[in-house]
Design brief:
By secondary structure, the chain is an all-alpha fold. The chain has two helices and no strands. Helix 1 runs antiparallel to helix 2. The protein is elongated and about 55 Å long. The mean pLDDT is about 90. This is ATP synthase subunit c.
């Protein structure tokens, strides 16, 4: 049962990261379309936030894998 829960947790982490990065990308494109002169700052902030989201998703996936292999 714990392995099943770990698999669901890893899947939810991947889905959450995908949705979060997609929302950031869409918002960044919208912001650049509204203010093209701020494209560099928006793009830099977008990349930093996307990296942080990806790190959290990777951490969640590793924790789920550790739970599944512990049993």
């Amino acid at each position: 049962m714990a392995v099943f829960g770990a698999a669901i947790g890893a899947g939810l982490a991947a889905i959450g990261a995908g949705l979060g990065i997609g929302k950031i990308g869409g918002s960044a494109v919208e912001g650049i379309a509204r203010q093209p002169e701020a494209a560099g700052a928006i793009q830099t902030a977008m990349l930093i936030i996307a990296a942080l989201i990806e790190a959290v998703a990777l951490f969640a996936a590793v924790i789920c894998l550790l739970i599944s292999f512990k049993l």
